[in-house]
Amino acid sequence: MCLGKKVYLCADLYKTKYLKMTTILAIESSCDDTAAAVIRNGTMLSNIAASQSVHEAWGGVVPELASRAHQQHIVPVVDRALKVAGVLPADLSAVAFTAGPGLIGSLLVGSSFAKAFALALDVPLIAVNHIQAHVVAHFIDAPRPKFPFLCLTVSGGHTQIVKVSDHLTMEIVGETIDDAAGEAFDKTAKMLGLPYPGGPLVDKYAQQGNPKAFSFPEPKAHGEFNFSFSGLKTSVLYFLQKQTTENPQFIAENLADLCASIQYTIVKILLNKLQKAAKHYQINEIAIAGGVSANSGLRAALLDLGQRKKWQVYIPDFQYCTDNAGMIAMAAHYLYEKGAFVEQTFMPMARMR
Question: Distance between terminal CA atoms of the chain?
Answer without folding.
Answer: 48
